[in-house]
Amino acid sequence: MQALRGTQDILPNDIYKWSYMENIIRDLCALYGYGEIRTPIFEETKLFLRGIGDTTDVVTKEMYTFEDRGGRSITLRPENTASAVRAFLEHKLYGDQGVHKLFYIGAMFRYDRPQAGRYREFHQFGVEILGASSPLADVEVIVLAYRLFQKLGLQNLELRINSIGDKNCRNAYKKELISYYESQKDMLCEDCKQRLYKNPLRLLDCKEDNCKILAKNAPVITNYLCEECHNKFEKVKSGLTALHISYVVDPGLVRGLDYYTNTAFEIQYPPLGAQSAICGGGRYDKLVEEMGGPDVPGIGFAVGLERLLLALEGQNLIPNCPQKSSVYIVALGEKAEIEGLKIQGELREKGVMTYMDLQEKSLKGQMKQAGKVQSIYAVIIGENEIEQGKATVKHMQTGEQSEISFSQVADYISQENSINK
Ligand code: HAM
Q1: Three-state secondary-structure class, residue 333
Q2: Which residue CA neighbors atom 32 of ligand 1 most closely?
Q3: For residues 145 and 82, what is the distance between their CA atoms, to the nearest angstrom?
Q4: What pLDDT, on a 0 to 100 scale, did the predictor assign at position 184?
Q5: What atom in ligand 1 is closest to the CA of residue 257?
Q6: Would the pTM count as exceeding 0.70?
Q7: Which of 7, 31, 404, 416 is least crowded, fewest Cβ atoms below 10 Å from its Cβ?
Q8: Which portions of the chain are predicted below pLDDT 70?
Q9: Vertex 127, ends 104 and 223: CA angle to 5°?
Q10: How much of the chain exceeds pLDDT 90, in percent?
Q11: How far is the CA of 192 from the centre of ligand 1 (A)?
Q12: Region label for 420, one of left (φ > 0), alpha (ψ between -120 and 50) or beta (otherwise)
């Protein structure tokens, strides 16, 4: 049996890399005042149809949807914004009319074509601010993502931003876009021909060669923004400039999910090639309302943690796994095992990592194992030791040995400087 294509195991020797990223993320979120939210891995399918948009690639091609035994249509979450908004509504968090700053870390599922940096089960760290209409909120989330990458030591990031306006200015723009593409419809790929009337903005993002050429000369949305949307975008840009965060305005950046309004952004790490987007997000001022709630604006982003890890590993930016020093109890015979168990308990109580043989190995085998796990001390309890009520405590590197009575072993070892607890 093998893990399914596009999924992977994270084994104990690698998990510290994930803990390393997640600890930095959690510290940063605490500093910025975000509270963690955990939503279910699966939801009713209609949440995503309504939330993400039923013409998007994610919904039409990539969702893991199935019927459960009760005949309900269920989907493994392909992203977490729709679920966060569902939870926000379900628990009436909007009741206090305040600003809610949420973050999450968790697995998402998309039936994508697997390759380096693109998986079917992947993990995202994301944030959502609900209830904040000020462009300062846009600046805050972008800065948060940026600082995270800086803190991790990543350089040469490219922040691309755009505004896709509100419904009014976007509709005017869509009309222009449709008439531009209509005149050259034959050059479009089959997918784009289909999307032209349903979701014309997506054509700007198509990866097919001909579509890319057409997109280059297409009208740009930033020329169609109404005054209000234009001013908001200017404020976001000046906030970033004030914080010395460099960005590129990319009018072709439209993002793949339907809920966005105004600010859209991506942070790319170019060495990752085709999968260089390590973070994507934007504002979604109408999503809460579209999902049946009050008029509450939202903005957020999500970082792909597998991609972030690839970027960090590529630059050697993950520190080595911190080695905790340990003690190995080498016990031979039933009575020795009982004394060993007691000493192990006392050492653990004092915060000292302690191993004991669980495979009924010989004395030699246990000593070998103590060396293999690089224990600082071996606490040896054999027949002689049982007779004398004292264990032999051997420093594994110097070979120095002391006889210590059973009740004193834990104190003796835990007071040693070489043991880090
Ligand atoms: P997204 O752009 O679909 O946005 O995904 C965000 C990030 O998740 C991507 O930039 C990428 O790093 C990672 N990602 C996406 N698909 C895969 C995959 N198949 N394999 C590995 N990594 C992947 C969202 O999901 C929005 N919910 C972000 C957001 C939050 N917007 C507002 N709030």
Answers
A1: coil
A2: 300
A3: 20
A4: 92
A5: 3
A6: yes
A7: 31
A8: none
A9: 150
A10: 91
A11: 22
A12: beta
